[in-house]
Design goal:
binds (2S)-2-hydroxybutanedioic acid, globular, alpha/beta, 330 residues, 5-stranded mixed sheet, 11 strands
Amino acid sequence: MKPLITFVGLILALTAVPGQAEPIVIKFSHVVAEDTPKGKGALLFKRLVEERLPGQVSVEVYPGSTLYGDANELEALSNNDVQLLAPSLAKFERYSKQLQVFDLPFLFDDLEAVNRFQKRSKGRQLLRSMEKANITGLAYWHNGMKQLSATKPMYLPSDASGLSFRIQPSAVLESQFTQVGASTRKIAFGEVFSALQSGTVQGAENPWSNIYSQKMHSVQPYITETNHGVLDYMLVSNTRFWFSIPHQIRTELEGIIDEVTYEVNRAAEEANQTDRARILKAGTSEIIELNPEQREAWREAMRPVWQQFESVIGEDIIKAAQAVNRKQRN
Ligand code: LMR
């Protein structure tokens, strides 16, 4: 009898209970630490989904490049091996040239300006700019303005000359450093700390939260507070997957995303300022504040990048982005 009982048990275990559908599984992979704007956003999304859609949707969060890293996460999304990502806007170059507007140096005065652009029609349109590649943009999430770190003090653009900087995979960022006589290496985020530590590159650019959470400050004795560009994210899903979710559940998920987006974007600037203070307290790096003339010199040096990429990105998009600044410049 024993083999028969085992066989019946196996059949029962393999038979789905009628009416009890398996939950939809959303794997959310990202490359940063959990205690960062994106890391916290992913966890909040998981919590709210599991509170409001119990048994219907389950969320698995994989932080710190533990499931996929920069090199393969978008490919994994396209294969539906992962269902949510929030890569930085610099990482979509292959799929949307227009999104490179976010990498232009000194385009946005501050994060508030970035926020305004993302909410206006051109910014909203860009969420749909990768539909042909089966990528749907669901929201913009802030991290913050980028700072320049290096092994030597940098007050003026000429101080960066001859150094090698780690960059994200973006031609705009490559050109930005070329303008100041520096060279660049495209390195996945998960490998930046060791590249800085070993001296493969001497500098990098990142918001305070990434510098602190990756301990980059421990190997970068100087950080110049340039606020020269933005590092923000687009929360994206695989289009076919997203629109295969039953309407009612998808609507609930979209409501949750709105709530999480509000919270991530509300808290990001403060989180960056907290990490700036932590870096100061750690005493490993000198934070160099630029006077207006020095900052203007960086702006002037990097400004030719706009012209260079105008036809690639679109003049209308650059103009719309410029228009969100409160201070008027040419
Ligand atoms: C970087 O590669 O520096 C950032 O895009 C990492 C991140 O996701 O914040």
